[in-house]
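Subject: design request, 681 residues
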């Protein structure tokens, strides 16, 4: 086993965990929280009979990272360690894996599934675990899966059930939970402590050493004046006004300013209203207005051609799929103005001044022969793709030696990265083959990214936790943390607010740490009791909501053309994950498209082809077919692509958990009896 020593501040924060006290370790990004946790795990394994350590993470890529970089090097020689994620086969016999291993590193969802699964090879009890380490534990709140796991723990604790594992939480910041005053921030920190049944510790005696080890970057606000003229944006607003007039906006509805998040919220409400009233004109106009609003937001942050490109991508497939007069008007409006928009977008006189400021900010740190390494954070996967295209085609940035790449979250779909792609990108960044990562928030939290001397936040509005984590990425000596923003814009106000909230978090934690042990214990027990009651009430409400209508009383309508295509009673739930339509008649309502490709394989099913509405020119995508147990070909549908006709009126929901009827589990045996009766004779 590789021997390792802790810094004095790390030794201070592990004192209470080593005494088997449930503890949250609060240290900044780069402060070595995981290393401290490995040390506690090592001592726990050495001193605890039948020790079983489980490490929970909240993102798939962190499973392998913690296993490879931290736990295996220090524990792998003397103990059996297993990394398990949704992408690994061991999850299918997780109970056996836990039984046969000393240390298991997994996503929280896998443990929660195991706690609630009654199948012997998959089931795990909390009493099987002696030490439970929870990474990024500030996520242990509300409906998060960490809180579901800890909810099981707290209920057992309050019922007096033992044994229970020791808890060790790790966080760079618990945040204030949206609180702006000290009293409410203290309540939030106490709630996190209650959810984790833990005290919270930080270094008191060795703060200077911590500051030396984790230097704070120099923060700059790179401010740019507002565009003096914006003919491209003005033309988009004029087109939006034409749509407003065409849609005959309801007299009781007022849209707020175009190009804002508030306007987006308004058109989402309008779309829902159009669906509920069966008013396709209103619903479609609202959907198209949202695209124009997105283009205005992109125009405010990125290049004009990026904004134009987003509209062109949206409208190109619409040309051949216009369904009625509303579609012909909306598509025609774009087609008629397409050349003018493109001409305006290509006029460099009116280009976004923020892009020039971003260029100058990067050029201050990068240059020929200069060994710089930076991360550029932006809000969406779309914006980082546009920024990457800009970086690799910008002559000045290329001459300065910038070698940029995208880093996004893992997932399925064209705009996500696979776990392998993530790892390869970070490896190249570490080796120096790349020196600028253009990233969404995935790089803010947890990922093992080497020291940077520049972090830039561009067009971002986030909370104080994300800000601290992003800032913590600039760990090199004399590093810079830059906020590129418009003069008087919301980004600067949010950044300053977050600085205040960061200080407020520290004060709130200090207040909690000053509480007398009995006072703290009583408060935690009170909060835990309230949380258990609240969960039961909420579960009762959900059950009541799901039972509000019978499945047979619900009709599913295509979200685009409003044609009725299915009954709620046709829908069944496969393996608590896939909502499928088992009615053979449903196939007459859809057409089959291209094969769905996924980066991973699954135990009992494989993806088939995309499916979409076949009503005339509708072509609304509904989901994709899955082949279950190599026999059943089932249409797996996303409820966001449908409207629900209920006894109380027409509604839309984003997720299946929000439907107002109970979906029964899929029976493979019944399906086979119905479809292959001969084999049962």
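Subject: RE: design request

Done. Sequence follows.
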């Amino acid at each position: 086993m590789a021997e390792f020593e802790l810094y004095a501040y790390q030794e201070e924060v592990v004192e209470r965990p080593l005494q088997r006290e449930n503890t949250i370790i609060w240290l900044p990004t780069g402060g070595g929280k995981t290393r401290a946790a490995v040390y506690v795990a090592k001592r726990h394994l050495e001193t605890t009979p039948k020790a079983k350590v489980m490490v929970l993470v909240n993102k798939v890529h962190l499973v392998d990272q913690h296993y490879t970089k931290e736990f295996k090097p220090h524990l792998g020689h003397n103990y059996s360690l297993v990394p398990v994620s949704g992408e690994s086969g061991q999850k299918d016999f997780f109970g056996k894996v836990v039984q046969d291993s000393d240390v298991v590193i997994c996503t929280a969802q896998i443990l929660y599934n195991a706690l609630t699964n009654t199948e012997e090879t998959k089931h795990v009890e909390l009493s099987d675990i002696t030490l439970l380490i929870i990474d990024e534990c500030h996520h242990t709140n509300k409906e998060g899966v960490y809180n579901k796991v800890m909810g099981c723990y707290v209920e057992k604790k309050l019922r007096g059930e033992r044994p229970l594992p020791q808890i060790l939480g790790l966080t760079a910041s618990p945040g204030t939970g949206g609180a702006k005053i000290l009293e409410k921030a203290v309540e939030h920190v106490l709630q996190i402590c209650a959810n984790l049944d833990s005290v919270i510790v930080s270094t008191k005696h060795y703060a200077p050493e911590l500051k030396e080890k984790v230097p704070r970057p120099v923060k700059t606000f790179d401010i740019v004046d507002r565009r003096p003229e914006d003919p491209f944006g003005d033309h988009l607003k004029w087109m939006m006004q034409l749509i407003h007039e065409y849609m005959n906006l309801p007299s009781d509805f007022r849209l707020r300013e175009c190009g804002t998040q508030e306007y987006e919220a308004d058109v989402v409400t309008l779309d829902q209203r159009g669906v509920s009233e069966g008013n396709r004109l209103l619903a479609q106009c609202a959907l198209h207005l949202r695209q124009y609003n997105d283009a205005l937001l992109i125009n405010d942050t990125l290049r004009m051609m990026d904004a134009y490109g987003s509209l062109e991508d949206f409208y190109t497939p619409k040309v051949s799929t216009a369904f009625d007069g509303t579609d012909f008007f909306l598509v025609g409006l774009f087609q008629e103005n397409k050349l003018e928009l493109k001409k305006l977008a290509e006029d460099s006189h009116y280009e976004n001044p923020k892009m020039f400021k971003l260029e100058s900010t990067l050029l201050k740190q990068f240059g020929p022969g200069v060994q710089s390494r930076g991360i550029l954070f932006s809000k969406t996967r779309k914006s980082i793709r546009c920024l990457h295209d800009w970086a690799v085609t910008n002559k000045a940035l290329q001459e300065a030696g910038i070698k940029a790449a995208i880093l996004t979250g893992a997932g399925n779909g064209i705009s996500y990265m696979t776990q392998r792609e993530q790892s390869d990108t970070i490896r190249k960044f570490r080796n120096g083959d790349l020196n600028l990562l253009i990233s969404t928030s995935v790089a803010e939290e947890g990922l093992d990214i080497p020291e940077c001397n520049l972090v830039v936040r561009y067009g971002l509005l986030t909370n104080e936790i994300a800000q601290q984590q992003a800032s913590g990425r600039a760990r090199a000596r004399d590093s810079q943390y830059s906020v590129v923003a418009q003069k008087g814009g919301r980004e600067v106000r949010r950044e300053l607010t977050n600085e205040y909230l960061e200080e407020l978090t520290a004060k709130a934690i200090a207040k909690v740490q000053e509480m007398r042990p009995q006072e703290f214990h009583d408060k935690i027990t009170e909060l835990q009791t309230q949380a258990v009651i609240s969960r039961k009430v909420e579960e009762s409400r959900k059950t009541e909501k799901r039972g509000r209508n019978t499945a047979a009383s619900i009709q599913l309508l295509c979200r685009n053309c409003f044609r009725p295509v299915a009954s709620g009673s046709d829908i069944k739930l496969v393996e608590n994950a896939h909502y499928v339509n088992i009615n053979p008649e449903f196939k007459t309502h859809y057409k089959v498209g291209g094969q769905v490709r996924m980066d991973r394989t699954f135990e009992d099913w494989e993806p088939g082809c995309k499916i979409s509405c076949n009503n005339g020119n509708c072509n609304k995508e509904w989901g994709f077919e899955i082949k279950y147990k190599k026999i059943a070909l089932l249409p797996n549908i996303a409820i966001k692509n449908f409207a629900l006709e209920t006894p109380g009126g027409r509604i839309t929901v984003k997720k299946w958990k929000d439907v107002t009827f109970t979906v029964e589990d899929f029976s493979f045996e019944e399906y086979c009896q119905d479809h292959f009766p001969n084999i049962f004779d």
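The radius of gyration is 27 Å.
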